[in-house]
Each structure stands twice: as C-alpha cells, then as structure tokens.
Design a protein that fits this description.
This protein is an alpha+beta fold. The protein has 5 helices and 32 strands. The chain is globular.
Amino acid sequence: MTEFRTPDDIGNRALQHVGQELMGTSGFSENSKNARQIRACYGKLRRAELQRNVWSFAIRRAVVRPIATSTRMLAPALWSPVTTYFRGSIVIDAYGTPWISQQDNNLNFDPLTTTSWEQYFGPLSVSLYDSTTSYSAGELVYTTPGDGTSRVYLSLVNGNADNPATATAWSATTTYALAQVVTYSSVAYMSKIDLNLNQTPSASAADWASGTTYALDALVNGSDGVTYKSLSGGNLGNDPISSPAFWQNQGFLTPWTTSFVGGTGSLKWLQVGGAEFPMGVGLSPANVLYPIASGPTIGDGNRNVFRKPANFLRMAPRDPKAGSVSPLGAPSGLAYPDWNQEGDFVVSRESQPIFLRFVADVVDVRRMHDMFCEGLGARVGLEICEPLTQSSTKLQTIASAYKQFMGEARIVNAIETGSEEPPLDDYLECRL
C-alpha cells in the first residue's frame, strides 16, 4: 500500500527523506534505532504541525453551554477489548483520546486501528435536560430519576425540543434505522434492521427461547436475525438456526424486537450512556473554581465559563471570509466576541450557548490531508536526520522539502489562509 493510512506510513516517508532503511511491519514498535527515533518525536510533531496552521481536514465545530451548578463533565472509561459497546458509546484510548462507537455489537475493535470508532470532537460538559430549552445537533444532556443514576443523550438534530426519554410513535411512512426505538400500542420496539419501512412492530416474531414449547406454524426470531416457522407441534429446545427438521427459514429478517437496551427515547436523540450501557461514558462533577458566581448568568459582574470541546487544539476563525465589527460599529459584519481562553475553558459574558469553530487534534492518519502527511513526514525527517546521518547537506535538503510541501498545501487549500478582519475603531466607523 502506498497511501498514507497509519503513522508508520508517515514515519517511513521521513526515513525516505533521510535516506535510511524503512521500518518493517512492526512499525514504531520495531526494535531499531530508526523506529526509536521516530517513536520519540512523531506524536509531539503531529500536534505541533496541527497547531501551526488551520488545516481544513482538522476543522471541527461544537456547541458548548456555560457551566452551571447542575453541569456534569463527560468521564469516559478506558476502552476494553472484552467489552461489547453500543453505537454511541464513548471511551478513551490508552493516550486519553476520546472515541465514539459507530456500530452496535462493537467488540474487540481497537479505536486506533479500525473504522468501528470515530474520534469524538463534541462537548465535554453535559447539561441537565431542560424541557424549556431547544438543543443543537451534537449537544449532550443528561436525565436522572434522583436515585444517583443518570442517562446521557446526544442530540441528532438542530432545534431539538423533544424529551429524550419519550419514545417516538411508530409511523408506517417513516424509514427506521438499525437500533432505533419506537412505541406501538404502548409497547416499545427496537428495529433490528436498516431501511425498516412499513413493517408493523407487533407483527414481528418474538425471539426464540429454549424453554418454550412451540406449536405448528409458530414464528420465531432466530439468533441470526432471521424469522423461522415451526414445522411441528411440541417443538421444544430445537435451535432454529441449526434444526432444519424442526424449523423452516422464511427468507427474511425479523424487523422488530421487544428485547433491547439503551432506553426508549426520542429518535431525535442518541443515548450514549446510562445504567444499561457497558462501561463507557460516565459523568463526574464539574469542579470548576471560577467564575466566582455559580452561573450561567447575564449579570455584567460575572463572566461565564465554557469547557472547550474534546480534542481541542486552537481556535479557528469563526467565519474566515467575513469582516468583523466592534459591538458599537456598523450594523453589518461579524460581531467581535469577548471570548477569552483560559486553560481548558473559554470565559465570556455571554450566557447563551456559543458555537466554537476549532482545530482538532486528529490522530487518525486516514482523515489527514496528503499534503499534511507529506509536510509532517519532512518535519519528522528534520528531527531524526542529525542522529541518524550527521549530514548537514541532507538536513538542508529536507528543510527545503518541508517548506515546499507547506507552500503547496496552501495553494491547494489544505491550509485555510483567510482570516477575520480586525474591528474598525468606533470613531472612524461613525465618520465613514
């Protein structure tokens, strides 16, 4: 494979610049001087290069709300190869990077090496659900019955005013996805298939049970998701998927089941944590020592604090093609915000949610622009050239290649070059 797919590919590109032997299939873990030198600097330089420019592939957006006394912080557990995760489960890897599961039955798929997980770039603060509030896509809320437990939900749409704990009624004209939950005649059902259209939930066969005696022509759902029909009466203990003498495969998947986990909430929300979930996302107290007031508040004497999103590296221009104006300036343009960055937080007098556009700490090489990989390879080559070759000539050659790659990245718009204009002075603005 010649594409950039893993950190090893970037490391080997650096070795090509230096004129050294490439790493083998063991990659960074290889017991060689080349691998040790690359291993010692790759992660540091990757983050530095991401922060140096506003790379288009690393730009993300997130909505964050001011921290209040009821706010909790996302506390994902460490990923485990023996835990089966649901779609929406959030974990951290060995380096502390958060990931969100993209599929159900997610077992033994390492977030760092498979496509079953995506890096999580959403909010780390979780608000208590408020029925009077409309939520944006990507926001997190939690509900609690008051017994010390909670459920955490992720909004899937903008303008979301649905109660996350209230299930959506089944509709014959709606196409449902795998694992979506609806109610039909006051009973909750979970879809077992994608593209589930006009399949009445109550008509679906129940899951086969080894202790149940089935009559002739009884329908059941096998463990393979297929519907089977009993070929005899008194049918007991015969597994449908391995007993063709007792069961006939009907040739279609069972569309609905009453056996599910994850709650019976609205289809506009995705449950990502709760008592039903395996170890993954959890909640912890906010423990923020400032601002002094509890917040959020609109009082001028208090500034509210907003937790930066997961994998945040640096701010990106809110609108790189728009000019900005001061609050007292002209009636058009992008209003200049009072956001101040302090550690892991943004501090502002704003009391409403703020929409952050930021450069994220992308670790998945498959998501990186090829020109970034070329530039990073040259940058790693600069770092390892001296200890591997002691050649000043090679060092200058690699430095020229690095400069070339970064320049080409701007030409092909891999690096965002637009910037917000500084606000005009109010006095000058009024005289124009």
